[in-house]
Q: What sequence folds into this?
């Protein structure tokens, strides 16, 4: 599914430094959070060459590698590259390079793209990254997401699944309620082609049907999958969590995007949302749209009554329930992955760290959150041989932090540098990515 060619001479957008990293470099005296278990390895040397982690050893040892570059990791913390598992490319202006700069500056080294709109070609993007023609995170993509209108007959299913297979998408994404016979046929044909199916839940069917997919996107889906009574019934929920756990499915909560939606319904919160610091990385046009009353949530939900209840308290209640349910899933060790949905004020890269904080607020430990952003996604994507933990032989996709994220997950924001396929992107480089994105607005 993925190949990485490292020893090529490269052309990179807007960057002067050579990208293919062949020289050996080390991070000296660093504290490693390897994420394969909840431990911290102090005072280590990590040797990186040809894009791989060659050696992890106590820093007191003499190194047998000639080092072209040494990075002082004293008092710093090294974590695996982060996974944004629910990404969308929403804005054409600035190209996908704009989003990649935001993602890399935030330590995101793997992305799962969740849709293909008609002006996009994510297979070409994935190929360019794999060939090192485009600097970007490891890239996985679904095709255009499928809705009931796309899948009316058996013939539609045959044609669309064959198309997705031939194009080479990594996943099939369902984003709608489908008739039962259609849904089951999609799962069956996708399995014949060996393409995983994931997406939103099937709200009209029992839970078990949705659990046949590889992952469920948005914990919000469980709000609608369960009835009002069921959401308040602790025995029902306990059994549902058990069933979810047994199925082996992976859940991507995307709490941050629901928080944004709720905030759009309240004038005070909305005013703050518009002023949030990272809004400076939104395109002018995009910000103008989301900050206005054309914002679809202001338009369609603000001040509305849904099922006899005002939308704002209703959604606030949903959000509390979603956090509680996320906690229940975590307590039962249901595999989870971090994703943010990236639209509106949910700005790519930054939004993943906001999601971490919502997960922490819901009751996940910092370690559980790091696992959901590294180890679990690597297992899910089939890249566990080379990604997801800090161990010898793995790809050198790593993030160096100034503060310990195991103490508070907000410390994942203290990024000193990122190793992308072994290439060191220091704070200056990351800041220049951010400046380039900001400058698109002036
Ligand atoms: Zn999505």
A:
């Amino acid at each position: 599914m993925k190949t990485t060619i490292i020893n090529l001479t490269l052309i990179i957008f807007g960057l002067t430094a050579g990208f293919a990293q062949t020289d050996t470099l080390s991070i000296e005296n660093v504290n490693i959070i390897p994420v394969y278990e909840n431990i911290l390895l102090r005072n280590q040397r990590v040797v990186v060459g040809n894009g791989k982690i060659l050696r992890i050893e106590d820093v007191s040892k003499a190194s047998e590698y000639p080092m072209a570059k040494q990075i002082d990791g004293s008092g710093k913390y090294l974590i695996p590259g982060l996974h944004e598992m629910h990404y969308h490319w929403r804005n054409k202006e600035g190209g996908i390079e704009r989003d990649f700069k935001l993602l890399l500056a935030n330590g995101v080294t793997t992305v799962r793209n969740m849709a293909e709109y008609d002006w996009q070609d994510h297979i070409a993007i994935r190929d360019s990254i794999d060939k090192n023609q485009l600097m970007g995170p490891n890239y996985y993509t679904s095709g255009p997401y499928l809705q009931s209108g796309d899948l009316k007959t058996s013939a539609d299913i045959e044609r669309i699944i064959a198309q997705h297979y031939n194009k080479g998408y990594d996943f099939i994404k369902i984003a709608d309620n489908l008739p039962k016979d259609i849904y089951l046929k999609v799962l069956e044909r996708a399995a014949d082609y060996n393409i995983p199916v994931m997406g939103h839940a099937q709200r009209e069917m029992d839970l078990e049907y949705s659990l046949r997919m590889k992952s469920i996107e948005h914990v919000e889906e469980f709000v609608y999958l369960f009835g009002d009574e069921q959401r308040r019934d602790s025995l029902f929920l306990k059994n549902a969590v058990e069933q979810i756990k047994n199925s082996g499915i992976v859940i991507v909560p995307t709490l941050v995007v629901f928080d944004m939606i709720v905030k759009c319904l309240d004038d005070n919160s909305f005013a703050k949302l518009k002023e949030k610091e990272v809004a400076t990385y939104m395109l002018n046009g995009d910000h103008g749209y989301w900050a206005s009353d054309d914002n679809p949530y202001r338009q369609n939900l603000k001040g509305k009554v849904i099922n006899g209840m005002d939308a704002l308290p209703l959604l606030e209640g949903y959000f509390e329930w979603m956090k509680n349910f996320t906690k229940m899933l975590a307590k039962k060790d249901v595999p989870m992955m971090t994703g943010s949905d990236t639209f509106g004020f949910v700005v790519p890269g930054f939004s993943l760290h906001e999601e971490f904080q919502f997960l922490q607020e819901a009751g996940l430990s910092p370690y559980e959150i790091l696992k959901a952003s590294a180890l679990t996604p690597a297992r899910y994507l089939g890249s566990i041989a080379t990604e997801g933990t800090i161990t010898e032989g793995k790809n050198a996709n790593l993030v160096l932090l100034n503060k310990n994220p195991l103490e508070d997950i907000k410390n994942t924001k203290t990024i000193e540098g990122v190793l992308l396929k072994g290439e060191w992107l220091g704070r200056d480089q990351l800041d220049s990515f951010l400046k380039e994105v900001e400058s698109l607005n002036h």
